[in-house]
Structure to design on (591 residues):
């Protein structure tokens, strides 16, 4: 897909990788938008006539020349793809630690002898053909080989020279938004042309390297890497911010920029629908000026770093356990907006309440642009004594929802696990709380309380025993001791101890169980039904305390709601609102 230049969209052109230096000074008539990777590969292999820098299946960087094995390509019983051969930069294939030469194509004569055609000459057939004829005549085998060469031209080379590439050509009047829309409609696979790519091209026209800001270079660590290393636990490669996307970062900046525009409009006396929306949607990103990006980039980066610290305080340490990736954007933007005020206990308590309402209300699963905008506008005002944000005021958690939370696909499932650790859950074996060090050092994860094997033998269905009600954070070693035994049995093992683990007093064990909101008597009696009913109530109390409100006890009424994801992959929304959640005036809404 191409786009004519000199139109409304001002992109800085970038030559295809490997193009000669003179290409940088050329003024293009069209820009290549879709198909860049394929066209780059074709250019480097077929036209550039230089060794190609590529990577092996094991991700090792190598330099290769590519050849077509003429006889293999003409073998009707063979896959033609297998006829393509890559050879090292010196065009010699060796084996046995480079002691033995398997194939030597270092000269044109040796290529002719091996009947190997250089892919770099598929568009230069006439020259190769003339050189081959001269070589074959000198060798005296022209009559024998020419029919092969002629057939190779007709069946293979003409596939290159006669190929018609389908092209979608966008004229210069096409808008940025239309470019994105058309790209999405035609590009069902491959790398999406997201807003970051377009904004990068627009900023490049003004001399700013947005890609370098994000990805860095050989001498500079980019923002993406800095985020990945923020709050990185010992022994781990990355921290909680590793999946923050470049568009997430731009979205947070856009919230500040569009709020500035709205405030300017209010100062000018505009009201109601005249006021621009505060939003971070894609259209806003495509209209984000470079000046606004530079104004807020450092501040927003600081907001994401604070967000990582905030999540760690909630005992959310891994991306794997993060309830919602999308909720990071408003969290970071709010923390960037309020600055050091987040360190005050009263403000932090409110932020914690807002966060858990978003998680247990399951509000950030899909169509979140309007939710992000509302929270960005409402939460800072609430922290200063204003009205409670709609994410809190209009969200209710259903009591029976706990029974249907079985997998990490559910944000609320992850939330319960984090709340238990935050409230001081202690490991059954060691009695240690799951702070940052213990969590990673002891390989803590969510495990069954009544083991799966026991439940199966007792005839309990998986949709019951896999509920979060029957799960809790435990260390790997503790889970190994539990195995598939009845609770009364594994508690006895833990209390008796062994050569590796000291004995645990019954009173101490009961105290550990209570920190997990478990009634020790019910667990020791192996009373699964009573245990589930009791712990559901205890977990519900925990969630109500986190959300600052009572749960709805009317039960789940949506027929068929069971697992955490609907058929489109978005999390099933299990909230009940006291009234329709309307966006504040002027905010972007999603229909």
């Amino acid at each position: 897909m191409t786009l004519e230049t000199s139109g409304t969209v001002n992109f800085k052109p970038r030559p295809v990788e490997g193009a000669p230096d003179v290409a940088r000074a050329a003024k293009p008539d069209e820009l290549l938008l879709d198909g860049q990777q394929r066209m780059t590969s074709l250019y480097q292999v077929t036209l550039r006539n230089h060794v190609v820098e590529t990577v092996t299946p094991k991700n090792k960087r190598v330099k290769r020349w590519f050849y077509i094995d003429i006889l293999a390509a003409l073998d009707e019983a063979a896959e033609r793809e297998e006829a393509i051969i890559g050879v090292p930069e010196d065009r010699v294939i060796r084996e046995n630690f480079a002691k033995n030469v398997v194939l030597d194509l270092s000269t044109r004569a040796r290529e002719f002898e091996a009947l190997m055609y250089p892919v770099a000459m598929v568009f230069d057939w006439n020259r190769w053909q003339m050189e081959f004829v001269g070589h074959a005549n000198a060798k005296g085998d022209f009559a024998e080989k020419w029919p092969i060469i002629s057939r190779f031209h007709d069946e293979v080379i003409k596939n290159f020279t006669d190929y018609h590439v389908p092209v979608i050509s966008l004229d210069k009047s096409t808008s940025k938004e239309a470019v994105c829309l058309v790209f999405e409609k035609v590009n069902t696979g491959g790398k999406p042309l997201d807003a970051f790519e377009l904004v990068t091209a627009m900023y490049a026209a003004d001399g700013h390297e947005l890609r370098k800001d994000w990805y860095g270079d050989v001498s500079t660590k980019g923002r993406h890497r800095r985020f990945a290393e923020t709050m990185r636990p010992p022994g781990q490669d990355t921290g909680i911010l590793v999946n923050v996307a470049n568009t997430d970062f731009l979205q947070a900046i856009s919230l500040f920029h569009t709020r500035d525009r709205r405030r300017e409009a209010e100062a000018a006396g505009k009201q109601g629908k005249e006021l621009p929306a505060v939003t971070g949607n894609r259209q806003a990103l495509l209209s984000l000026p470079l000046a606004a990006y530079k104004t807020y980039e450092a501040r927003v980066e600081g907001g994401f770093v604070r967000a990582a610290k905030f999540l760690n305080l909630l005992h959310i340490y891994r991306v794997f356990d993060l309830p919602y990736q999308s909720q990071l954007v408003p969290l970071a933007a709010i923390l960037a907006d309020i600055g050091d005020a987040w360190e005050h206990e009263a403000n932090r308590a409110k932020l914690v309440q807002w966060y858990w309402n978003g998680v247990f209300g399951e509000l950030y699963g899909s169509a979140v642009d309007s939710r992000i905008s509302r929270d960005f506008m409402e939460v800072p005002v609430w922290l200063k004594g204003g009205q409670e944000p709609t994410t809190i005021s209009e969200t209710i958690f259903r009591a029976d929802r706990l029974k249907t939370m079985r997998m990490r696909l559910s944000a609320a499932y992850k939330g319960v696990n984090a709340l238990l650790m935050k409230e001081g859950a202690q490991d059954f074996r060691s009695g240690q709380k799951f702070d940052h060090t213990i969590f990673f050092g002891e390989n803590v994860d969510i495990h069954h309380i009544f083991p799966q094997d026991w439940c199966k033998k007792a005839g309990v269905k998986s949709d019951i025993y896999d509920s979060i009600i029957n799960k809790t954070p435990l260390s790997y070693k503790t889970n190994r001791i539990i195995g598939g035994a009845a609770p009364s049995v594994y508690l006895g093992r833990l209390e008796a101890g062994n050569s590796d683990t000291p004995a645990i007093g019954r009173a101490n064990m009961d105290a550990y169980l209570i920190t997990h909101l478990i009634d020790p008597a019910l667990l020791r009696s192996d009373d699964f039904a009573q245990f589930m009913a009791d712990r559901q109530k205890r977990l519900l109390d925990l969630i109500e305390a986190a959300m600052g409100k009572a749960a709805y006890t009317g039960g789940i009424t949506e027929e068929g709601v069971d697992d955490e994801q609907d058929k489109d992959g978005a999390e099933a929304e299990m909230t009940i609102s006291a009234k329709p959640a309307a966006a504040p005036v002027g905010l972007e809404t999603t229909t």
Q: What stands out?
A: DSSP finds 26 helices and 13 strands in the chain. The chain has a mean pLDDT of 88.
